[in-house]
């Protein structure tokens, strides 16, 4: 499964998502690519959604999306860093899909992740340099907040979180370099092609 959250077709994010889909297809895998700008899934957790979920009913569109995710063994999440966080569409998708009872459950000892059969790789593009954020301790914070506290919280194993700095300034050569870097982050997977 590929989840991408960039509005522009020309973005590195979508370029990378397309390349990942190609690689997966070469392996003969079934690929589900959820481009969150295609707008066929609401990314706003509504009052009605919240009431339904609290009373134990999962809205039909959320349930359908959860079924898609349930099928996935490997999830690639590709997104630009916006205001040091996920783009709103990705945050909203997470709010609606990774629900209590599907993605995690609460017990006396705290929360338990339920999606333990899934591996995740995050790809974060950004305008700043890694150094600027590293100096403020924020790269580790992004790994924790966007990776561990979301996908890790749901029991998924995070096998990589990669950052693509100053991507807006990158020329063709640099984009190609980053694309290879991204694909190389799946060595044991793509080595089988
Ligand atoms: C609304 C908005 C907020 C942004 N916030 C940040 C930010 O907090 N940090 C950063 O490094 N870049 C920020 N950027 C720059 C984007 O991360 C950058 O344009 C994006 O990674 C380009 O992605 P692409 O190569 O996939 O096109 C922001 C861009 C937009 C449009």
UniProtKB/TrEMBL annotation:
The organism encoding this protein is Geofilum rubicundum JCM 15548
Tagged with keyword Oxidoreductase: yes
The protein here is known as: NAD(P)H oxidoreductase YRKL
Output the InterPro entries linked to this UniProt entry. Flavodoxin_fold (IPR003680), Flavoprotein-like_sf (IPR029039), NAD(P)H_dehydrogenase_qn (IPR051545)
Q: Which UniProt keywords apply?
A: Oxidoreductase
Show where the Flavodoxin-like fold domain sits.
2-186
Coiled coil stretches, renumbered? none
Q: Which Pfam families match?
A: Flavodoxin_2
User: GO cellular component terms?
Assistant: cytosol
């Amino acid at each position: 499964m590929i989840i991408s959250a960039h509005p522009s077709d020309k973005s590195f994010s979508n370029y990378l998502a397309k390349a990942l889909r190609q690689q997966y297809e070469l392996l003969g895998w079934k690929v589900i690519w959820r481009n969150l700008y295609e707008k066929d899934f609401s990314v706003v957790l509504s009052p009605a959604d919240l009431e339904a979920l609290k009373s134990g009913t999962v809205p039909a569109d959320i349930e359908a999306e959860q079924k898609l995710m349930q099928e996935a063994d490997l999830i690639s999440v590709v997104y630009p860093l916006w205001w040091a966080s996920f783009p709103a569409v990705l945050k909203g998708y997470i709010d609606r899909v990774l629900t209590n009872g599907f993605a995690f459950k609460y017990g006396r000892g705290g929360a338990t992740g339920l999606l333990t059969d899934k591996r995740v790789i995050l790809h974060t593009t950004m305008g700043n340099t890694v150094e600027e954020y590293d100096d403020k301790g924020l790269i580790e914070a992004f790994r924790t907040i966007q990776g561990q506290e979301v996908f890790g919280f749901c029991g998924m194993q995070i096998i990589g979180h990669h950052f693509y700095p100053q991507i807006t300034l990158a020329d063709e050569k640099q984009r190609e370099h980053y694309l290879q870097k991204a694909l190389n982050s799946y060595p044991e997977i793509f080595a089988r092609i």
